[in-house]
Design a protein that fits this description.
- By secondary structure, the protein is α+β, with helices and mostly antiparallel strands.
- It has two domains: 140 residues, Jelly Rolls (Sandwich); 100 residues, Homeodomain-like (Arc Repressor Mutant, subunit A, Orthogonal Bundle), CATH 1.10.10.
- It contains nine helices and seven strands, in the order βββββββααααααααα.
- α1 runs antiparallel to α2 and α3 packs across α4.
- About 3% of the residues have low confidence.
Length: 255
Amino acid sequence: MQFPFKVIESKYASRSEFRLTDGHQPTHALFYLKKGIFTIQINDRKETIATGDCYILPDYVHHLRNVIEPIEFVYVQFADNPVCPYKMEIPCGKVNFTDKQRFISNITSFEKLLLKDDSFSAGFREHLLLDILFQIHSESHPESTFQETTVSHDSLVNKAIEYIEHNLSNKILIEDICKHAGTNPSTLNFKFRREFNSSVRQYIICERIKKARKLLISTSYSISEIAVRCGFLDVYYFSNAFKKVQGICPSMYRK
């Protein structure tokens, strides 16, 4: 499998000042600051990076940076992979993670592998970097993670879809959908079969699975918690329904 980025260099380093304070880098770089403080300026934007912060510096962009307090950091140089069939947009600057626990878990595992130079460790580091970058991408572009919103030309069906989308975490009764859409179960099922070749109940299950896929990839919630958030009665029913739709169980999908 080809990844959109490849690791060029990775290391743990310490500095009382950067070797290059005024210039640009030939590749993208990720800094995870373990200790200290430094400032960095790109154009008119100046940021202070402190202990625990993650910063993404893009390639060939002029910057000014200075150490305020001696720093220790995990440093990863990475570049675009020209043979990968898909691209991933990564914003530059300080990263404010929504799911900080997921990032810390990945960067800690990455750091532990820095002293190992075997091919397995190198491949694992690349997997960890990809997950970190995917998290940054998905949290900064939540609307582009999954473009799976269903739209119908039938206004009644769209009203039903609206109700379903707003209640996926709850128990959904056909009667309640009909009340919201102003119709009856027979008409509603007829229209859903015409539009999507599925019953309303099948449509709801598929929408729950779509939501579960997103949570499995972009969060560190447990499988049980995801089941609850997606409106399944229990984790056993969730796993069975997920496997019927996806062909694999939720834990394997996450891996």
